[in-house]
Design a protein that fits this description.
Structural class: mainly alpha
Number of domains: 1
Order of helices and strands: HHHHHHHHH
Distance between the termini: 21 Å
Largest sheet: none
Number of helices: 9
Radius of gyration: 19 Å
Length: about 210
């Protein structure tokens, strides 16, 4: 397999089509957990792990289980595809449970700091979006490796976005922000400026 194409897939989803800044997926945890860098980085790593494993596992289930079963027993390889969305949610929820148990055992302070946002990774639309994009794109449908790189890159892009945002928000605590913009206002404005900045990567690969 062409290594250059894998690099292009990775950079494309990290920079050009970043799930947060370009596709506006995963905004809830992005805004809710980006208050300090350590917590944001931890959330980014958790999302990267869940997104990568979920992307790979769902690809395997759809192409190596559902498709052969549908073709063999029902005469149509797509006849069982109605189960895909249920499977996606179940796989994502299972991966989140693994992360939750790991953090609770080995990093209890981080587990406590995440609070409700950790189980909410299950409903993080960025992760479900990655699984759906892999399923809908013919390039990823035909290649497990490219699907894995895409899912991993999506997680890295999310981690980068939330960590950058957390660093900016930490510095803003010591800034003289106008009273009318304090809180959600300045946070959303900062996110908009970052999204505009990432538009500068749109020409990569052309």
């Amino acid at each position: 397999m062409d290594f250059t194409s894998l690099i292009a897939v990775f950079l494309g989803v990290v920079l050009v089509n970043n799930f947060v800044f370009a596709q506006f997926l995963g905004i809830c945890p992005f805004l809710g957990v980006s208050k300090n860098v350590s917590m944001a980085f931890g959330m980014g790593c958790a999302v990267t792990f869940v997104m990568t494993i979920s992307g790979v596992v769902t690809w395997v289930i759809v192409h190596l289980i559902l498709t052969p079963l549908g073709s063999r027993f029902l005469g149509n390889p797509e006849s069982l595809y109605f189960l895909k969305y249920v499977i996606f949610i179940m796989v994502i929820a299972s991966m989140v449970q693994l992360v939750e148990m790991y953090l609770k055992k080995f990093f209890p302070s981080l587990y406590t700091a995440f609070g409700v946002f950790l189980p909410l990774i299950t409903t993080n639309c960025a992760i479900l979006g990655a699984c759906l994009l892999i399923d809908m794109n013919e390039v990823y449908q035909s290649s497990l490796v490219k699907s894995a790189v895409f899912a991993f890159g999506g997680g890295v892009g999310f981690a980068m976005a939330i960590t950058i945002m957390a660093g900016i928000r930490e510095h803003m605590r010591f800034s003289d922000v106008p009273k009318a913009l304090r809180g959600a206002g300045i946070t959303l404005l900062t996110a908009c400026i970052l999204a505009l900045a990432f538009q500068g990567f749109a020409g990569i690969g052309k």
